[in-house]
Amino acid sequence: MMGETLRWQFEDARVEPDQVDDLQALIQMLFQRRSLPHLTGWAKTWQVKELVRDLKAASTAYAAACTDDRPAPFPFALAHLRIREGRLEPIADAVQVEDPALLARILSEFLEPGATVQFGMGAEAQRWKSTGSGEVTPVPVSPAPTDTSADKA
What we know:
The protein is α+β, with helices and mostly antiparallel strands. The protein contains 5 helices and 7 strands.
């Protein structure tokens, strides 16, 4: 399952200085494996096992989300990020996300506390704030302001 395509945005997404190289390596790994959902047979089998192993090594949040029977959803959306001047920024307006909360937890391992990530827009939006490595708290999403200037005329 590939997940739903959602718009995403970041605020105060500063990468921990000692995590820049690790996050860049994770982004690159997922970018290189982005064709995995389209593979079949033996090629897919061994690449899935290898990717699960590498993701577990790169992220304790990902490792914790896996079970003995099944890996956690692959966070391929991370392949659509870049690090510029110590800040994390998206290179795509929308990405396919199967588990937004897991993706937020993975990102929190690399971002300074206080960073926020939001998936979706409007009433359906989901937003999390990093409170520490692998720890996030849901943040209420404010509704978009409505234009009431016509009412005042």
